[in-house]
């Protein structure tokens, strides 16, 4: 059995992972996660730099992924294949939320004539699990599995507004907010106040904080027992609706569809 490098053993000990933790499997997942919209094709060296893993480990991981049909190599660089979607399908197929929420997103998009998506909180990001496009998909098009920062998105704030104060404070304490546009709120005290306001009013609205040119409104998505499990969001271009009337224009349809979902989410 291969032994861990001393450095990796120290990292495992520091992380708190037990003896059953599979280091090779974790490295393989890191290699998969290195690919993305801006890194569709990467050489072995590119992946090693992106993951901060030794080249021999990256080489074995890429070789294994290629053998399984999850990646392919043109002789110089690697890229993931469509088969990698089987990993996402496993989650979506086993997660009732995605199946139930997709039709609701489509209905909201039809009623508002804007793009609609549902997202869950994963650490400091939101991850989209359902979506329906409308209007100008060239910029507003979300995709299943797309990650965005939670702190400056309406969906993220809608979910965060439902967590206990101690959990929220701990989350904000470790948050490292980055400026995305001239409108991005990065002051943690201001963010906390904004999230508490969302809790009070029942919805979150952001104006050009994630990307210039559009704003969004989101509401928490609750399970049958009242626990918040996601958020559903409508995004629109600035010229389609002034910020002042944004919530008034789209909130009614959003709330009606989301409230109808609650009894279905067991």
Automatic annotation (TrEMBL):
<dbReference type="InterPro" id="IPR050707">
    <property type="entry name" value="HTH_MetabolicPath_Reg"/>
</dbReference>
<keyword id="KW-0238">DNA-binding</keyword>
<dbReference type="InterPro" id="IPR036390">
    <property type="entry name" value="WH_DNA-bd_sf"/>
</dbReference>
<dbReference type="GO" id="GO:0045892">
    <property type="term" value="P:negative regulation of DNA-templated transcription"/>
</dbReference>
<dbReference type="Pfam" id="PF01614">
    <property type="entry name" value="IclR_C"/>
</dbReference>
<protein>
    <submittedName>
        <fullName>Transcriptional regulator</fullName>
    </submittedName>
</protein>
<dbReference type="GO" id="GO:0003677">
    <property type="term" value="F:DNA binding"/>
</dbReference>
<dbReference type="InterPro" id="IPR029016">
    <property type="entry name" value="GAF-like_dom_sf"/>
</dbReference>
<dbReference type="Pfam" id="PF09339">
    <property type="entry name" value="HTH_IclR"/>
</dbReference>
<dbReference type="InterPro" id="IPR036388">
    <property type="entry name" value="WH-like_DNA-bd_sf"/>
</dbReference>
<keyword id="KW-0805">Transcription regulation</keyword>
<dbReference type="GO" id="GO:0003700">
    <property type="term" value="F:DNA-binding transcription factor activity"/>
</dbReference>
<feature type="domain" description="HTH iclR-type">
    <location>
        <begin position="22"/>
        <end position="82"/>
    </location>
</feature>
<feature type="domain" description="IclR-ED">
    <location>
        <begin position="83"/>
        <end position="266"/>
    </location>
</feature>
<dbReference type="InterPro" id="IPR014757">
    <property type="entry name" value="Tscrpt_reg_IclR_C"/>
</dbReference>
<dbReference type="InterPro" id="IPR005471">
    <property type="entry name" value="Tscrpt_reg_IclR_N"/>
</dbReference>
<keyword id="KW-0804">Transcription</keyword>
